[in-house]
Amino acid sequence: MPRPTCSRCQRPLGHCLCALIPDLDSRTRVLILQHPSEVGHALNTARLAALGLRNAELRVGEVFDDLPQLLAQPGYRTCLLFPGDEAAALTAYAADEQPLLLVVPDGTWRKARKLLHLNPSLAALPRVSLSVAAPSRYRLRKVPEEGALSTIEAIATALDTLEAPRCFDALLKPFDALIEGQIAAMGEEVFIRNHQR
User: How far is CA 117 from CA 59, 62, 91, 130, in A?
Assistant: First the structure.
């Protein structure tokens, strides 16, 4: 029989993170497009980000038929948070009068690229990337490349950049608790052996 889970954070009731999820307002609107393969992931950080931000929306799918309407938010300038040679540094947008609608694909790099391929209006958006970010707090897996962050870390870093001097560290509290919980469940010895190389 499956363990009872919290309907909000979707964690097992004994490990509910809702008390740690903040209720943050932001000038920036965040639209997270999550690949379906991420939904059941134990560390579903996109869901935690969407729950912690009032001005955020999480959509799950591969093809988003209503994407043109989602992207056409009056009063917002729309950008895709996705690194690449053609991506502008997000710092260039920090002084903008017009707030951003920041579109964030959530999935492995391969799945995120697939979302762009299947949704041409997404791929056509101007791209932005983070400047040098702090190392990932995601200590449970090796980062594929220097500067790689989980979705919630990327969103918090982007908001810190766009809305400085405001700080969005509170968004990472449930994420940090999730990581600590996973490490505790596997045991310190196993964690050190498998993840501290």
Answer: 17, 10, 26, 22
Taking the domain 23-195, which CATH number applies? 3.40.1280
pTM of the predicted model as reported, rounded to 2 decimal places: 0.88
Percent helix, strand and coil across the chain, each to the nearest 5: 40, 15, 45
What is the Cβ-side half-sphere exposure of residue 28, based on CA atoms within 13 angstroms?
Answer: 30
pLDDT tens per residue across all 197 residues of the chain? 677 889 899 888 888 999 999 999 999 999 999 999 998 877 789 999 999 999 999 999 999 999 999 999 899 999 999 988 889 999 989 888 899 999 999 998 899 999 999 999 999 999 999 986 666 666 555 544 555 788 999 999 999 999 999 999 999 999 999 888 877 766 666 555 555 54
Backbone angles phi, psi at 127, to 5 degrees: -100, 145
Helix residue spans in 55-187 (DSSP H): 67-71, 109-118, 120-123, 151-162, 173-186
Asked if residues 153 and 175 have their Cβ atoms less than 8 Å apart, the reply is yes
